[in-house]
Amino acid sequence: MSYLSDVRALARKDLLLELRARDTLPAMLLFVVAVFVVFHFSLPEGSSDVAASGLLWVAIVFTALLALGRAFVPEREQRVLDALVLSPADRSAIWLAKSIATFAFLAAAEVVALPLFALFFHGLSGQAIAGVALADVGICAVGTFVGATAVATRARELLLPLLFLPLAIPLIIGGVGASVVADPGRYLGFLALYDLLFGLLCWAAFEYVVVE
Amino acid sequence: MSTAEKYVTAAYCVVFGLVLLYVVIIALKMQRLERDVEALEEKRPSDG
Amino acid sequence: MARKHRIPLPALAVASLVLVTLALVLVFFVAPNDADQGFSQRIFYFHVSIAFTSYLCFGAGAWKALRHLWKRDPAADLESYVAVHQGVIFGSLVLLTGSIWAKISWGHWWLWSENQLVLFLVLFLFYAAYFMLRFSVDPGPQRANLSAVYALFGVVLVPVSFMAIRLAQHFIHPVVFTRHGAAFGGWILATYLVAQFAVILLAYTLYRVELAGKLLDLRIRALRLA
């Protein structure tokens, strides 16, 4: 189906760009490590493991923001977005491809960050990792959408966290819940529901963000 | 009702009363302004 | 770009005045005292009415947004904006009245255990960003589109956030302040209904006033340029 090949082509473009430029991913990794060190000094003596789990989610969200801020920069600077919109590809394919690429970056960063977290603080259970995976989907779907919106404004990078964070709050709640609670089923189910609802909404509405 | 409660009640009533009076005044002013602007719009095309 | 409304504005304003006065009389003089909380529970008649009205405003804003995106209704963008604005105003009042109630009932100005308060805090953040978004784009079709899409996101966020906050209470607050729901009977129900309808009418009046003001402003500007 031509839609999927469009998505694949666009996602490949973003991944290749990053592979050649190698600026976003290293920055994310360094950022995550720095944030963990800051956490260590922010958590007073005797803080529970649960507190550290919570802070992990802060790290994930802000690392994702780092990647999202950069996500549409090439499109904007080289007017690629206009060209993409003019092409016969379905506009939502742009969003889907960009989300997939961002997910790849975030997952790559987490492959390093999560073991590091286990080293610095405490091990992560399977349910926590499932929570991270599900939440990542939501973060990338909604974050990409909101990133495209922010790029269309004058304030740009300033607006991205403001638009993103209220939408990310349910994801953080779901993720933290999945990490700390004994029976995580409800939280993982909630994360899946969020991904489905907002994924559909982003997919349907992206057209209006890039077109006049 | 105790004295404190009476004051709270009175405060609520006074604040709401003033706000609503203000809304009525604004509504009347808005209606007058709309009529004025309509009159102006009708005049304009004839000026060319 | 204006829609011809059937009910004239001054009539709405006077009706609001009458109905809110009636609601105040009922709330403070007629409704019986709550068994547990006494007098402070009375603020709930307005707190709940204002909260529901706020949701209605956000819903109306989303509906107008949908009409803009789907039917290309020329008046819908401004109407959506004004509806969201009213929603934020009433939402702020929810936070204010809720905070006052929390102080009177529990001694704290803020309670993370109150789901309604936390939800409105999240919504306030979301819709405040709506205005930042809108004022960061020059007037035109793109601003209308972006605002409309964002308003639709908001309306989906309401139930999702509510679910999330309920889930969060399990690991944040093992001790939940329980509040007795008023036994809905007789005067309590009647008072609540009057208060609710009064606040909805007030919100609609304010919406019409602001809309009229903005449209007038646009027409005067057009006249000046002509």
Task: Give a written overview of the molecule.
The complex is a heterotrimer of chains A (212), B (48) and C (226). In chain A, 84% of the residues lie in helices and 0% in strands. Chain A is mainly α. The longest helix of chain A has 30 residues, at 91-120. The two termini of chain A are 27 Å apart. Chain B has one domain. Chain B contains one helix and no strands. By secondary structure, chain B is mainly alpha-helical. Chain B starts with a helix and ends with a helix. Chain C is mostly helical. Chain C has one domain (40-173, 184-225). Chain C has six helices and no strands. Chain C has helices spanning 9-30, 43-71, 76-106, 115-135, 141-172, 186-225. In chain C, α2 packs across α5 (141-172), α3 (76-106) packs across α6 (186-225) and α4 (115-135) runs antiparallel to α5 (141-172). The longest helix of chain C is centred in the C-terminal third of the chain and has 40 residues, at 186-225. The radius of gyration of chain C is 20 Å and the shape is globular. The model of chain C has no long low-confidence stretch (mean pLDDT 87). The B-C interface holds B 1-2, 5, 8-9, 12-13, 16-17, 20-21, 23-24, 26-28, 30-31, 33-34, 37, 40-41, 44 and C 8-10, 12-14, 16-17, 20-21, 24, 28-29, 39, 202, 205-206, 209, 212-213, 216, 219-220, 223, 226.
Spell out the key features of this protein.
heterotrimer, A: mainly alpha, C: 226 residues, mainly alpha, 0% strand
Gross morphology of chain B is rod-shaped
Low-confidence stretches of chain B at least 5 residues in length (pLDDT < 50)? none
User: Number of domains in the coordinates of chain B?
Assistant: 1
> From N to C, what is the helix and strand string of chain C?
HHHHHH
Regarding quaternary structure, what we see is heterotrimer
Instruction: Decide which structural class fits the backbone of chain C.
Output: mainly alpha
Radius of gyration of chain C: 20 Å
The helicity of chain B comes to over 70%
Give a quick summary of the entry.
The complex is a heterotrimer of chains A (212), B (48) and C (226). Chain A is mostly helical and 212 residues long.
